[in-house]
What we know:
mainly alpha
Amino acid sequence: MTKLTLSPQELKEKGNEEFQKGNWDEALEYYTNALKLSNEENLEKSIFYKNRAAVYLKQKEYENAMKDCDAALKISPNDPKALFRRCQALEALGRYEEAYRDARFVINVDPNNKAIQPVLARLHEIVQERYRENSRTSAKVAQMFELAFSMETSKEKRETAFNNLLVLSREHAGAEIMFKEGMVPKIMKLLKIEKNNDEIIIACIRIIAELCKENIDRTSAAIKEIGLPWFLEMLNSKNEERVNAAQHCMQTVLNSYSGMDNKPDSKPKKEMCEKYKNEIDTMLTCLVFSITNRTITGLARDAIIELIMRNVHYTALDWAERLVDIRGLQRLMEVASELEEYKYESAMNITPSTRTVTSVCLAKIYENMYYDAAKEKYCAAIDEYVKEMLLAPDTESKVRVTVAITTLLLGPLDVGNSIVARDGILQMILVMASTDDLLQQKVACECIIAAASKKDKATTIINQGVKILKKLYQSKDDSIRVRALVGLCKLGSSGGTDVTIRPFADGATKKLAEACRRFLINPKKDKDMRKWAVEGLSYLTFDAEVKEKLIEDKEAIQAMIEVAKTGDKSVVYGVVTTIVNLCNAYDKQEIIPEMVELAKFAKHHIPEEHELDDPDFVNKRLIALAKAGVTSALVALSKTDSQNSKELIARVFNAICSQPEVRGIVVQQGGAKALLPLALDGTDKGKKQAAQALARLGITMNPEVAFPGQRIMEVIRPLLNLLSPECSALENFEALMALCNIASINDNVRKHILKEGAFAKIETYMYEDHLMLQRAATQVVNNLVMCEEAIKFFEGENDRIKYLIILSSDEDLDTSLAASGALAMITASSIKACNKIFESKHWLESIHYLLANPNSDLQHRGVVIVSNMINSHKEIATKVIETDIMEILMAITKSETVENKKVKELAAAALEAAAKWKLIEKQPEESRPSDSNANSNSLESVE
Length: 943
């Protein structure tokens, strides 16, 4: 008989059977099928709904449970079970007042229901406390409203009142009261008058964001009240803090519509995206059309592009293809073609970071074109823009299209290269570089630099462009000279770290580096030129001799760090790449001797590394950079949206953290705080590098100092991500060592580690053949079992106790200490664990090993384990007495070779416990140590 041939009643019975077994998915399917076959709204159907609600409660699907209870109550009002289950669902959802209402209904319908009584008492206390809190909050809100919205109140008092309202809006009760009291219309009315007080405006924007946060009803009502143009109006400012607040507010609205939050791994809910598709699409369209708005500030434009970029990925709102359809690419290319110094009638206001942000956005969109047809549409849109620009005969169009191509080459490189490869494009750029027009020379130089990214392109440009670049380097205009210099630097470094490939004559790279240095350290040069000088060094520092000379030049290093601290996103690549090269933090191809011999035989080129790139030189450079304050520069640069730049920053952090003596400097300058987001969001390699850097900080430093406050909880997940077969043994080991230190802090931390599903991951490494991994994993477990939740893992139907017994007699002393220490703590808390010891064939052998061990720490652990077993239960004590363990304990109490007094005391206490069970005769007083007062059950006895 199949599910399809069963009657609704039979399906219900089957569902009940599966429910009793704990098979929730199967039970859910049976109840759902029963409901599908039930057409009449009768009592039977009500039962099906109630039963399915019970399954949903088990699966923690509280919204679905509530809906099924609603359906059951519609058929059978005041049904106690349906009310009770809805009460449970509402309580889990934090809707306590409604849960309390249902609990009261249940007690009215069924006064003798014992299950609801504790629930009712608990909810009564919660509701009363919430009522009291709401009353207090309501009074605070009323007081702050009076101060904030009264124009007669002093400016300082109004600002304080708005900041207090912002704090209140972050609380559930405060947000509800403020919204009901008309906070949104009050803000709208105020902002029509309040035009110049940015502190109040920013507070208002942030309050709107808090009211909309994770609340779709308030979000919909607020948008209806204020309209989307208001957000763009708030964005349009030269105050960076205000722009950031407005950007965050818009993202919060999008998150509310899509079910996302601001965490890096947050994903939208499909059903919500479908339901609010029109609202989300309207916001996207508004943002896209605002990109080229000539009346907004550069900061606002950057914020809009960042918002779009944040939501193009398929794990976010998947805007990529939609952007192409509504001509978003053409608008981005318009922005990409803008130059700060080139002002014309319809020029857009841009910042030094605008082109960098645009290039990253174009790259993100291209990355999310997941099939060939989508990529073709993308390329067609770019082609269309380039062709339109080239049709115009004026110089301005040529300049702007060249700038746009440069921006493309900094983003989706393949698309940029395909444009440069078109007939006449490279020739046009080279002709522009040969003119006497400074602007054409400048943009052509930048494009040549960007185009020389691949060796084949670099070769072409070396053949055709070096003469032009050398000529431009003779220019009297510094802005042209520095760009030509960077072009020469890039072409001169096309061989990378391979010392056998040098396109220019010997000594040329040193001369180029010296020229870059002069631009970099000269305080009279503007920021733009210093930025280009750093970019030149980013290419030249592939040369080991340049690295060594630069690292000794404290003035140049300090100047580079100061450039980085400005936060200009266009300097990220140059600074970070230079530091990566100095640290040798790039991927290195593994050189296999056999393959080298084969390559020589086949007359293939073999890369050679310079002797100045040996580990000793690299380590000195790492320490010098850390002491020069490079961490503060990395912290400033880590706010970039470029995933590749984030990876490079993580690589540098990890390389510096490999040196124990500078880890304190990294923490002191904010490195740990910057590493956390890098470890959770970025490329796979970048996340691993950042997580390993965090692990290294957690190994040698007190975790409470390295990760203060809540940060110690946040660091756990990145460390657990390193416990993967895809990570190297060193990464696994360092993560385990850091987790071991963190697990020693307190019970809250240990509980959080276990909550993150760490136990299974850590335990895997206890079975590794690698001694260091096995030892480290056992040490983590030793610290985790100080938490009661961890002990439960050893009480179930498994062989974990058996394995700890085996490890307790391991040849490696540290592993043996950790395993026996864990066993001592587990047996102190669990009778089940004490009983499970006998399941091991080797238990007596391991106990002998510990009790007779010359190492006093191991012997101490052995005595504690035996003492715990004897004290736990008479049956367990009987089994211990049946062996020769009693004789060994007696020998320990009398032995002169046992120097540890505590061991003797514990052995005597264990014998006394056996005597209390009347399993042995009580020892005469004189045979026991006179000052014995040991408590064998105490965990504190484990050292």
